[in-house]
Design brief:
Layout: H1 21-24, E1 28-32, E2 42-46, E3 49-55, E4 61-65, E5 79-81, E6 84-86, E7 93-94, E8 100-102, E9 119-125, E10 128-132, E11 152-161, H2 165-172, H3 178-181, E12 200-203, E13 206-209, E14 212-216, E15 226-236, E16 239-248, E17 261-273, E18 276-286, H4 293-311, H5 333-345
Antiparallel strand pairs: 1-10, 2-3, 3-4, 4-9, 5-6, 6-7, 7-8, 9-10, 11-18, 12-13, 13-15, 14-15, 15-16, 16-17, 17-18
The structure holds FE2/S2 (inorganic) cluster and fe (ii) ion.
């Protein structure tokens, strides 16, 4: 699965930024696989750490600390030569395994064993590049729609949020904001849905809700009224998911068919730091008729811009996992359980 071994050696800068083991040992999306072309070094920020990503000629994406062990120069200011990263300071070259193969000032010498880059585990899956800065505590979440041909797949984003990643995930699993934040699309402001009681269970793959029913006047890129039944799932602290079962409806919100379509979404957050994030989304649609990928993306751009606007306004910026700091209603059960779930995992970074 394209997994690069993690160096046992830690860079001196590893003590900077996030030290939360739950987040360090988790997988985080740092980009779309297509973002990384061969021959270029890309700077990447994750949990306050500066990294580089580069693609070697065998197709693998390598993610390393943005640091040369020699004198600490940034490798992101260097370049690729013959499938190797060249440090811009003294020209040391590092191959795909992270080993130094050449010190130009002593070209006949075999570089020291410790002359190594600092690689992290990196995997390409579902059209994303996932990185773990520590030792992966679990596998990347399952998204079986990726290989299921009934589903059309559409990536959208990146959506930079000047906001906390957990606040972004909580917004994604919240249905009662639709009539206000997404008025005219996912809900009706003058006639907001009453949310019936729903349940949330903790499964091996995270928290999962029962179906939450809402009416959506412009429920997806097909532009038709829908009754939507959302099943929310938090796979990981910074990876959410919903499966939305939809039925065509009349303007009053009553279904006009027994047939259901399915629209699912994998919602990933790259935490740049505790209060800045990049959201990337993968939608899978088994709907009839099929909209164009452009129409799906256009709608996602509108919806996530609306979400970003409100999430960036939330204070305190770090999500309170102490429930008494904010107010929880039964209609917020998924968000409330999400916060408790984060707290029970022992997460300390980006929360209060
Ligand atoms: S700092 Fe990288 S080669 Fe000297
Ligand atoms: Fe939203």
């Amino acid at each position: 699965m394209n997994l690069i071994a993690v160096s046992a050696q830690q860079p001196l800068t590893a003590g900077d930024g996030c030290q939360d083991p739950v987040l360090l040992n988790d997988w985080h999306v740092i980009g779309y696989a297509d973002d990384f072309a061969e021959g270029t070094i890309y700077p990447v920020r994750l949990l306050e750490r500066e990294l580089i990503a580069w693609r070697s000629s065998d197709g693998q994406v390598h993610v390393w600390e943005d640091l040369c062990i020699h004198r600490g120069a940034r490798l992101s200011k260097g370049w690729i030569k013959d499938d190797k990263v060249v440090c811009p300071y003294h020209g040391w070259q590092y191959n795909g395994e992270g080993g130094c193969t050449l010190m130009p000032a002593a070209p006949d010498e075999t570089p020291m064993k410790k002359a190594r880059a600092f690689p992290y585990a990196a995997v390409q899956r579902y059209g994303f590049v996932w990185v773990c800065l520590g030792t992966p505590a679990s596998d990347i979440p399952q998204f079986p729609e990726w290989k299921d041909e009934r589903f059309m797949k559409v990536h959208s984003g990146p959506y930079p949020y000047a906001a906390n990643g957990f606040r972004a995930v909580e917004n994604f699993i919240d249905a009662s904001h639709f009539p206000f934040v997404h008025a005219g699309l996912n809900g009706v402001m003058d006639n907001p849905d009453r949310l019936e009681p729903y349940t949330v269970e903790e499964t091996d793959t995270g928290l999962k809700s029962s179906e939450v029913r809402v009416f959506q006047p412009w429920g997806d890129a097909r532009g038709q009224p829908l009754v939507a039944f959302y099943t929310y799932h938090t796979f990981r602290p910074l990876v959410g998911y919903f499966s939305k079962r939809t039925q065509a409806a009349d303007a009053q919100g009553l279904p006009v068919t027994d047939h259901s379509d399915t629209f699912t979404t994998l919602f990933t957050v790259q935490p740049l730091d505790a209060t800045h994030s990049i959201v990337r989304v993968l939608a899978a649609l088994d709907v009839n008729p099929r909209p164009t990928a452009e129409a799906v993306r256009e709608r996602a751009d509108v919806v996530f811009a609306q979400d970003r606007d409100i999430v960036e306004s939330q204070r305190p910026e770090r999500i309170p996992v102490e429930l008494r700091y904010e107010l929880h209603h039964r209609t917020d059960l998924m968000g409330q359980r999400y916060r408790t779930w984060l707290r029970n995992k022992g997460i300390t970074y980006g929360v209060i």
